[in-house]
Amino acid sequence: MKKKGKTFTCIIxxxxxxxxxxxxxxxxxxxxxxxxxxxxxQRQISPKNNCICDYCGKGFYIRxxxxxxxxxxxxxxxxxxxxxxxxxxxxxxCGKKSxxxxxxxxxxxxxxxxxxxxxxxxxxxELHNCLNCGKEFYAKIAEIKKGGGKYxxxxxxxxxxxxxxxxxxxxxxxxxxxxxxxxxxxAALEELDILYxxxxxxxxxSRIFDFKIDPNVLIEVQxxxxxxxxxxxxxxxxxxxxxxxxxxxxxxIWENEIKRxxxxxxxxxxxxxxxxxxx
Length: 279
What we know:
Layout: E1 6-9, E2 16-19, H1 21-24, H2 35-45, E3 51-52, E4 59-60, H3 64-68, H4 77-85, E5 86-90, E6 97-101, H5 102-106, H6 115-122, E7 125-129, E8 136-140, H7 141-145, H8 154-168, H9 171-174, H10 180-191, E9 197-200, E10 209-213, E11 217-222, H11 230-245, E12 249-254, H12 255-260, H13 263-275
Parallel strand pairs: 11-12
Antiparallel strand pairs: 1-2, 3-4, 5-6, 7-8, 9-10, 10-11
């Protein structure tokens, strides 16, 4: 029986194929041997790269009807899956494109591609001179914006801030409450109408003296237990030597003496003779 169909040659692959009369009248029948060849031809005649993948940056083609439905963000299912897990970001230091997972981005990462670039970004700043010691140091931009970048170390910042508090007379309220023997000594000095400075710290020395009476008398009130410890004896000797080497007269009054003799009498006996006629 004679076949009623017709043989055609595929315009894409050149393969010969047979179609029945009912199939010949269809839109693309007679030109392509399969759907694969049809789609291949459509990609060739259609405009290329009408979309750019949000994940890998590759250009790709998608039908306008799909774009109207909100598609066209990713070039493949693989890119879509990866994009939902994370995203590519540009390093702020070297400009390299790197992939970061969603949890990394939520934790504040994604600005730098590596630890080297991260450390480099942290070094961005300016050279400043420490307000306390004058040493030149590197201050980060983030710290400067927050009002920092004034001191080269925590130690220098504490020294300056503590000095301000001492000068303002709020040392006791900030750091510790005065001891009972210190309060007794203050009361005695005020009773004898002697002007004094409490918790005095010299500009060229890091230690604090309990009381200073102008012009050159220093008073140290020593608790029996605390100042009998070996670790504190060396500090007390150091303070006494500094005072003597810098032209000061230092008076050490112990807790047991204040309890036995009284603070007022001790000042009369030990401090007033050193003051002379100056009060």
